[in-house]
Amino acid sequence: MFNVIQRGMGGAGGQGGIGGQGGLGGVGGFGGGQPSWISSQAGKGGDGGNGGPGGGGGGGAGGPSFDIMLVNSDAGVLLQDNLFPISDSVPTGGQEGQGGLSVGTGSSGSSGSPGASGSIWIFRSCQSSQTCPQDQHCDANGVCVPGP
Q1: How far is CA 1 from the centre of its chain?
Q2: Dihedral of CA 78/80/81/83: which sign?
Q3: Whole-angstrom Cα distance, residue 102 to residue 23?
Q4: Do 99 and 61 form a contact (C-beta atoms < 8 A)?
Q5: What's the CA gap between 120 and 54, in Å, rounded?
Q6: What is the C-alpha separation between 121 and 100, in angstroms, rounded?
Q7: How far is 114 from 18, CA to CA, in rounded Å?
Q8: What is the DSSP letter of 106?
Q9: Do residues 61 and 28 lie in contact, with contact meaning Cβ atoms separated by under 8 Å?
Q10: Continuous segment of H or E residues that includes residue 145
């Protein structure tokens, strides 16, 4: 065994901006800072909608938290040669940001997504195939990422 690798908590997502009442919507909150040097910055909350009554902005996503991240690689030797004291079942991703409020009925922003977490995460290219594992989707960069 070579290393003991323990991931930290991801930052909390920013709160969505408050919707405008005939004016400009509020600016979404900044994502929470990483609580330690081994954690990740969280996503900014969405800006509130403009107009009257404008919808609230969506909350920011929580920051991710992984022990090791790879791209198009095999994790075989890393799993054998390292100890990961925090189980994959323990969620260490940052908390999602709340959606922004709105004066309009049913116009508040949705909450963001909690940050993904795990011991080893392997990002795979999907640009040509557009196919990803069931719990992932192909993002705009052509990479399979966590979430529906």
Answers
A1: 31
A2: positive
A3: 12
A4: no
A5: 41
A6: 31
A7: 21
A8: T
A9: no
A10: strand 144-146
| H or E segment to which residue 133 belongs | none
Residue type, 53: P
pLDDT by position in tens, the chain (length 148): 578 888 888 787 887 777 776 556 556 666 656 556 555 555 565 665 555 567 778 888 888 888 888 888 888 888 888 888 888 899 888 888 888 887 777 778 888 888 888 888 888 899 766 688 888 888 888 988 877 6
Q: Can you give the pTM of this predicted structure?
A: 0.69
User: How far apart, in whole angstroms, are the C-alpha atoms of residue 16 and residue 27?
Assistant: 8
Return d(Cα 89, Cα 103) in angstroms, integer. 39
45 SS3 class: coil
